[in-house]
């Protein structure tokens, strides 16, 4: 007979057919966005899914675990993209890498829009939220460093502080959560192109 190692997390099976952990997480994020995380209980989630609370706890240990997983979903790909862009990449200027990471951030937001929407609403009311906010600050700082490198190359004007440029770039991307709907008039590639062009080339028409 085998036993679980002391201190290890309990094993979670698939549980009731039709509701795996991913499905429960998707429902939780939708409910957190609709009602607010603090105002949502595990009982609310169970009712939303038509399950009992014990059935929910078969998959997750707490509401906070669901929040943590959702915020990681929002942040992990973007963190990877920014980390890659700010590393040494032979043959690419800082300006090229900056444009690329802005474009990539649009793609990440569209792919993870519900989780990103939740991330943008956290206010640091728990350890999980504080950790997510710290990760957002890290992203801002790394992007500001890339902006500064592009300025040093002479590719960007030096009259706007890099930290402000970083905030404005992410702010433009993050504004998509307020109005973008998948399947609408604009596909992800068009959005990524438009935001990148507006951010770096502006709207003014230039003579050929």
Automatic annotation (TrEMBL):
Give one Pfam family: TetR_N
Entries under SUPFAM superfamilies matching the protein: Homeodomain-like, Tetracyclin repressor-like, C-terminal domain
Q: Which domain of life is it from?
A: Bacteria
Give the matching Gene3D superfamilies. Answer: Homeodomain-like, Tetracycline Repressor, domain 2
Enumerate the UniProt keywords alphabetically.
DNA-binding, Transcription, Transcription regulation
Which organism does this record belong to? Nonomuraea rosea
Residue ranges of the annotated DNA-binding region, renumbered to this chain: 41-60
Q: InterPro entries from the entry?
A: DNA-bd_HTH_TetR-type_CS, Homeodomain-like_sf, HTH-type_TetR-like_transc_reg, HTH_TetR, KstR2_TetR_C, Tet_transcr_reg_TetR-rel_C_sf
Would you tell me the protein name for this molecule? TetR/AcrR family transcriptional regulator
Domain HTH tetR-type per the UniProt entry, residue ranges: 18-78
């Amino acid at each position: 007979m085998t036993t679980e190692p002391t201190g290890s997390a309990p094993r979670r099976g698939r549980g009731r057919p039709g509701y795996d952990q991913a499905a429960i997480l998707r429902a939780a994020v939708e409910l957190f966005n609709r009602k607010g995380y603090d105002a949502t209980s595990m009982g609310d989630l169970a009712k939303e899914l038509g399950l009992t609370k014990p059935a929910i706890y078969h998959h997750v240990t707490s509401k906070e675990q669901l929040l943590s997983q959702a915020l990681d979903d929002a942040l992990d790909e973007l963190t990877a993209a920014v980390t890659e862009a700010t590393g040494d990449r032979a043959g690419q200027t800082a300006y090229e890498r900056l444009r690329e990471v802005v474009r990539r951030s649009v793609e990440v937001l569209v792919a993870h829009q519900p989780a990103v929407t939740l991330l943008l609403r956290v206010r640091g009311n728990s350890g999980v939220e504080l950790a997510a906010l710290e990760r957002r600050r890290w992203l801002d700082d790394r992007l500001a460093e890339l902006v500064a490198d592009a300025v040093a190359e002479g590719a960007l004007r030096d009259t706007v502080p890099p930290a402000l440029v970083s905030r404005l770039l992410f702010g433009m991307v993050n504004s998509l959560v307020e109005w973008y709907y998948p399947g609408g008039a604009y596909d992800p590639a068009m959005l990524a192109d438009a935001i990148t062009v507006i951010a770096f080339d502006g709207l003014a028409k230039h003579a050929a």
